[in-house]
Amino acid sequence: MPSTFAISFTGTLFANADGGSGSSILSFLFLPLILAAMYFLMIRPQRKRMRQQQNVQQSIEVGNEVVTTSGIFGTITGEDGPNRFWLEIDDEHDVQIRIARAAIQNVVTPDDHADTAGDADTADEADAAGDADAAGDSDDGDAVDAVSNDDTSN
Helix 4-13 crosses helix 21-38 at what angle (to 10 degrees)? Predict the structure, then answer.
């Protein structure tokens, strides 16, 4: 005795045999197309990123300059077991922290230093311009205060 699901499935598949069966077959193909699209657009790229991240974390050596997932830049100075490193974050004061291997996001390359140096120059110029504006604003504020003080004294 066939199950009711099999009967309803075949009934739906062959319903409207006078020309409407194409739409029912298309509706059954729609779900696998959505699943395939989800795989190629979401799952596969995520797995690729995870593999790349694991390769970066496995290739870390003492002396590498790295950036952590929280955005801390530093140099690996030693290993503290298979899953922990000592990260020096300040050369001048010899400040070191212990971090997990999984907390390392990326190894910093020399090209990254050139980009950050260019950003720092731009930031310094912007700060200098901002300081000049702030100085100009404070002068204007003093003039306004002087005028308002003169008005209250009369």
Answer: 110
